[in-house]
C-alpha cells in the first residue's frame, strides 16, 4: 500500500506495509509510480512505515510471477520515474533497506539514513539479483569495486559503512528534516540543478545548457537576488 500526504512544499510518500517490511507487489509499484509522477511539490520524501524502509519485492509475489521479465521492467520504470521526476526526491532510510528497496533508493536524488539504517542486496543468496536498475546505478554511485563487493557478497552494511561507501548522502536522526529544508529553495532552481547534474551529455554540451539555465533563472529571480544583498 502506498500512502501519500502533502506537507507544505513536500509530498510525503509512505510505503505502508509494515507487517511485511514494506515489501512491494506489482500493484504497489504502479501506485508508487503514480505518486511520484503526479507530484507538483518541489520535493518528494519517500520513506517506509514502521521499522523498515523497504524489503524490496514481495517474495510471495515474485514466486508466483508468470512473467518475471515484465515485473523487472515494472520496477525499472518506477526507478526511472523517481530519477526523472522534476521534484527533488529524498529517500529517508530508517531500518532495513534490502534488494529492490536499495534500488529504489539509488534512483532518488538524496539518500538520507538514520543511525539505525542497514542496507543489503541479498538476492545472490537465493539465486536472484536486484533488477530494478541497480546494476546500472550502483557502480555509478559507489564505483565498480564497491558495487561488486556489495552485490556479490550479499552482505549488509550499517549506516556508517554506507556513508563511507557513498551509498547514502548523510546520516541524521530525522531524514524528513532534510527534505523540509530542501523545500526552502526556489522550486525552479531546484529542478534545474537536478536536471543539469543528472544530464548525461558531453562536457561542452552540458556547460552550454548550464549557462542557458543560469540566464533563465537570473531573469526570473533578479529582484530576489537584489533583495538578498540587503538582508
From TrEMBL:
Domain of life according to the entry: Archaea
Keywords: Isomerase
Cross-referenced CDD domains: crotonase-like (cd06558)
Transmembrane helix is among the record's keywords: no
GO molecular function list: isomerase activity
Pfam family, one: ECH_1
Family designation: Belongs to the enoyl-CoA hydratase/isomerase family.
Protein name: Enoyl-CoA hydratase/isomerase family protein
Organism phylogeny: Archaea, Methanobacteriati, Methanobacteriota, Stenosarchaea group, Halobacteria
Amino acid at each position: 500500500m502506498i500512502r501519500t500526504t502533502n506537507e507544505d512544499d513536500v509530498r510525503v510518500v509512505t510505503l505502508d506495509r509494515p507487517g511485511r517490511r514494506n515489501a512491494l507487489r506489482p500493484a504497489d509499484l504502479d501506485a508508487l509510480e503514480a505518486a511520484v509522477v503526479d507530484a507538483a511539490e518541489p520535493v518528494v520524501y519517500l520513506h517506509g512505515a514502521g521499522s523498515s524502509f523497504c524489503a524490496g519485492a514481495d517474495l510471495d509475489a515474485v514466486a508466483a510471477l508468470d512473467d518475471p521479465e515484465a515485473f523487472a521492467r515494472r520496477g525499472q520504470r518506477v526507478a526511472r520515474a523517481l530519477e526523472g521526476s522534476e521534484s527533488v526526491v529524498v529517500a529517508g532510510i530508517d531500518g532495513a533497506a534490502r534488494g529492490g528497496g536499495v534500488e529504489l533508493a539509488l534512483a532518488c536524488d538524496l539518500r538520507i539514513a538514520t543511525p539505525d539504517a542497514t542496507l543489503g542486496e541479498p538476492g545472490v543468496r537465493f539465486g536472484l539479483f536486484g533488477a530494478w536498475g541497480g546494476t546500472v546505478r550502483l557502480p555509478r554511485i559507489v564505483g565498480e569495486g564497491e558495487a561488486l563487493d556489495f552485490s556479490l557478497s550479499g552482505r549488509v552494511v550499517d549506516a556508517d559503512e554506507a556513508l563511507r561507501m557513498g551509498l547514502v548522502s548523510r546520516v541524521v536522526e530525522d531524514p524528513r528534516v532534510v527534505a523540509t529544508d530542501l523545500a526552502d529553495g526556489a522550486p525552479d532552481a531546484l529542478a534545474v540543478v537536478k536536471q543539469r547534474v543528472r544530464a548525461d551529455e558531453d562536457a561542452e554540451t552540458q556547460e552550454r545548457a548550464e549557462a542557458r539555465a543560469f540566464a533563465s533563472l537570473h531573469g526570473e529571480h533578479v529582484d530576489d537576488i537584489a533583495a538578498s544583498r540587503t538582508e
